[in-house]
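Researcher: Here's a chain I'd like modeled. Treat it as a single chain, no partners, no ligands.
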Amino acid sequence: MPTVTVIQPTIAEEKSRIIRCAAYCRVSSDSEDQINSFMAQLKYYENFLADSETETLINVYADEGVTGTREDKREDFQRMMKDCRKGKIDRIYTKSISRFARNTKDCLKNIRELKSLGITVFFEKENIDTANMPDEMMITIMGGLAQEESVSISQNMRWSIKKRMENGTMKMCTDVFGYELVNGELIIKSDEAEIVRQIFAWYLSGSGTAAIAKLLNEKNVQKHGKFCHWTPVTIKKMLTNEKYVGDQLFQKKYTTDTLPFRQVVNKGEKSQYYYSERHEPIISREMFEKVQQLLYEHKDSFKGIRYNHIMMSKKIYCGNCGATYKLKCRNNKRYWVCRIHDAESYKCSAKQVLETRITTAFIRLCNKLFYNYKQILVPMQIALQDLKIRRFSGNSNVMEIHKEIAKLKEQTHVLARLKTKGFLDNAKYLEQTSELNAKVNKLQSELKKSPILTMRTKRLNR
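Model: Modeled as a single isolated chain. Structure tokens:
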């Protein structure tokens, strides 16, 4: 029978240390009652734990007037998570799960990450403490309810907006160049309105959107009182904006019904509401309709070339300056022209080329390759395969590198569990995980040295 010798601990137990606490509060709008709630939360947490002997409040993180369904929009929440990863926080207090997050997925993801770092979260309203493992199911349920509450609020707001659009009481919430917004109504700004009239006149006289944008940039024309860079896209949007004839079209874009909410262009999925003669016009309706006709004719001249445009786009390079060629239409003929030459001809002397000539040259090349593939393509394929074999034949240890990376990551998970259970202090945890991560990064950099190994790495990580 073996003899058992008990080796007594040589290091005394660490005295109970002060728990570093942080508080997080948030309101989702900047209305007066929400601001009062926000200030009340701040005041409460600033006085929180003032008399506690075991806990101390080190910081209050607060996001004002932002959504809870998108954590990337909450700057202070992101700052709090970074401080947690740096080991500055041991415990987080928050009013409720809905204040912490309204998206169940983000809520659980962040709570699990905090738990792996040894940080607990206490939700006061629900009386849930993540230090107790069984509470994760309750967090899932409450987080789901908070998410549904957010969706319900969104649906109610959309219903009220829709009703206002239907009965004609909808107000504008953003201004447009040439107008200023006053109590939801558009009022003409004389200096900007004159520029709008000039843009429409230039286009009717034969100037293109690129030429108009260039002219405005040369004149340093300001936009909303600030210097800006005018682009052809901006000019085209102005030329098609119905607000310049006194009308308004609502719901050009709409927000999706599911989380995460996204704003997308309305291409017929939702109803639109057109208000005629809503405000004072800058452009006469006759001039506006002439511009729309010109735009339609220009667009019509490009019909049937979408496939060719996609096929050749960013594939033709200028022999003089190296810039890519772009497609242009002039006098019912289509050309490919160097972008630099088109913008500033003195910088590049390359001439425009008819699209038919480029298409003919491309077809001729394809035919040559098709009829001579045995003399051209087959030898090239064999040469490339030989080159690949010679280049990567020495990398027989790829799987060994993957196995080593897997072992290092498993050690990282073990360290996280030890820290969560209190067997490893924060400083030692950070030191050892940093060392393991450095080894992993070194091994992964070896895998990224060749395209083939990179593809293999992606497949294994999936």
